[in-house]
Amino acid sequence: MRIRFTELAGVVGSAQNLGHGPLCGAEMASLPVIHDAFVEVVDGRIAALGPMAACPDADAGWEVRRCPGQWMLPGFVDSHTHLVYAAPRVTEFRMRLDGASYHDIAAAGGGILNSAAAIAAAEESALLEALLARLETARSTGTVAAEIKSGYGLTLEAERKMLRVVQRARELQPMPLWATFLALHALPKAANLDDFVATVVDRWLPALADDGLVDFVDVFCEANYFRPSDLVRLAEAAAKRGIPLKAHVNQFQSIGGIQASVAAGARSVDHLEVLTDADLQDLQTAWAHGDGPMPVALPHCSLFLNIPYTPGRALIDAGLPLAIASDCNPGSAPSSDLRMAWSLAAHQMKLRVDEGLAALTANAACAVGAEGHMGRIQPGMDAHLILTQPMADYAELPYFTSENRIAQTLIYGR
Ligand code: NIG
Ligand code: FE
């Protein structure tokens, strides 16, 4: 398969291989751009790109796609989703609008436990069908790859069901997917915290990992949920099996989740809506000693729960990298729209256009350990691409708060 995209208004990418580490601080503000460009894709990978003046003449063996006025961008990597769920939580939405808080609803037995009851009752085939439809929806707004968490199971069998749905979706559609065992998400009713953690870490994790269902583990480290010590225990057990940790930390309170994640060598620390000066400093220290955990902001969650936005500006100004993900889930972020997340990052988190794009692409790929083959347009990378409608400046994508001006999302060039 040899495809040549020609007459592009421009491509956010580089003809040279610029490496693939995280983009930190000021590096995020200006991504490489080639105006009036062509891009060649061979067998699903970027083979070459450059200015039209250097574009080879039409020759046999190439499928030529003229793209006058269109921009090509790296596709968005969604590093944090809960896309397997049985039903929306609209009743809780109404309750919140009547004045109840996310915590009130959880304390009354709703929230994650509500989603767990729905998962228990759902057929695997129905969950799979819903996931496939949601992946199509996500793709329409630029998503080319997604991490998907379990965590609404809360029993071994239901967690297995959720993870198997991800595994089957991988076989049925082209988008690369990662399955995360969100081992410690909520304490089931009447369960004892210490006993539950022990069961999950010592019994469920080995069982699911032995079935080949787990790419990452995750934990909701938060007051009233799980403690930093639980995070460390989970991370240590996972590390023995070569499985990295991603962690939900600092969504509502700062309780030491960042420090525990750093100590445990986490791949990413996600949420961070509440970030103290000490938390920021500890992240800076971690990154000063090499690759720390990728900070991941989830602006749809801030919008939907009306909680603070992750201080992305402060993180970047401190020289740190930042990724952005959807957190798509029925309780706190019912949207997979990363184009809109880019818009929220610009309008609410004060990120520059390229900072938002870097957070959704190169740095998002780092958050799932995929930076070696996606997140940038340069020779050798997988051809996971966004083609915009014709526009003068790709900043139109985040400029429009709700209009989607993405024309096509290509996975392996298709
Ligand atoms: O990332 N914070 C924990 N987990 C999800 C929401 C869970 C839910 O309410 O269903 C999140 O926001
Ligand atoms: Fe989440």
What does this protein structure show overall?
This protein is of the alpha/beta class and 414 residues long. The protein folds into two domains: 2-74 and 374-410, Roll (Urease, subunit C, domain 1); 76-367, Metal-dependent hydrolases (TIM Barrel). It is built from 15 helices and 15 strands. It has helices at residues 90-97, 102-107, 112-121, 124-140, 156-172, 193-210, 228-240, 257-263, 277-288, 299-305, 312-317, 338-349, 353-360, 362-367, 396-399; strands spanning 2-11, 34-42, 45-51, 63-66, 71-74, 76-78, 143-149, 177-184, 216-221, 245-249, 268-271, 294-297, 323-324, 385-388, 406-410. The strands form two sheets. It has an eight-stranded parallel beta sheet. Strands 1, 2, 3, 4, 5, 14 and 15 form a seven-stranded mixed beta sheet that branches. Helix 6 (193-210) packs parallel to helix 7 (228-240), helix 7 runs parallel beside helix 8 and helix 12 crosses helix 13. The longest helix has 18 residues, at 193-210. The relative contact order is 0.17. The mean pLDDT is 97. Fe (iii) ion (FE) is lined by residues 80, 82, 248, 327, 329.
